[in-house]
Amino acid sequence: MSRSSIASYKAGTTVGTKGSYVLRGTLPGHQGGVKCLKATEDGKILASGGSEGVHLWDLTTLTSLARPTGAGIRGSTSTLLWIRREDQPGEILAYGTQAGMVVCWRQAKTTMVFEEVTVFQMTHPAEVTGLAFDAGSNRLAVCHRQSVIQLYEMDDDMNANPIFSVTVPEYGPTAIAFRETRGRGVPEIVVCGWHDGRIFTLEADTGKIIATSQVGSTIGGVEFNRKKGVFCLDDVFQGTALYKTDTNARVRTFAVPRTKLAALPRQVAFADDGSSIVSGSDHGLLYVFDRRNGDVTDMLCVDPKDWVQTVTVRPQFCLLIAS
Fold first, then answer.
1. What is the domain partition of the chain in residue ranges?
2. Model's pTM, two decimal places?
3. Are strands 173-179 and 160-167 parallel, antiparallel or unpaired?
4. pLDDT at 315
């Protein structure tokens, strides 16, 4: 099995085509591909997921941290989510797996030690494709590839108490998020479908579909920015598309060239407090766009032969890339 490494970049000079970034270092050690990356809000810890399960990294020292467990029978890690709760002193990592498992690790106070506190399996198990948490209601929304969408209320010990479980026929969710409802109580849930481009809005307590829209393309990666009221997604045939969260209306398309016949999915992310959008590519470049005018502000070359699929961004505009 091949080894993969993660590259960490920060604002600086000499790396991007326009000289905006510098390579901080690489994090080698994954066997096989790296499917997902997520950094904590303060940018101190990185989680990376793949066939070996989850790896944890100290981004201050660029060293690996101990983890409670590997993949085992849970399968590859498919999605990651960091959670901060006002009643909890440390970070909480939630992740989903290929076997339909949802797992939570909790940081032991201010140390770099994590312990496993939650494990459960979704209905009709399949690859978990999306996780979202609403701190105001302590609710965790989850979806998997075989049409199932579930909502849980998490207690103080991160035990999952079911609220609803719905199945949408002939639908493959690829991302899930909470959407503000302008004072109407608990946020609604938005789910994006990968193969047909349908986006559903679900009622917060029952899971009833209350709105449907269509983006007209297969969807790769999706990133929501609740603060700005927008989300971006990978239109695998055109590039990165920016949408308004309240209306699901497309605002702008940021073209990302394709060099291969197959339209490969790419992950996308917001950066620089939401003013920039970052996208991978099928030809070794990471594209950085200005969200407001659509200009390419920089391109980082990872490897001309590489598929740059996995991207995340931490504060201070440090980019973390795995290809």
1. 3-322
2. 0.91
3. unpaired
4. 62
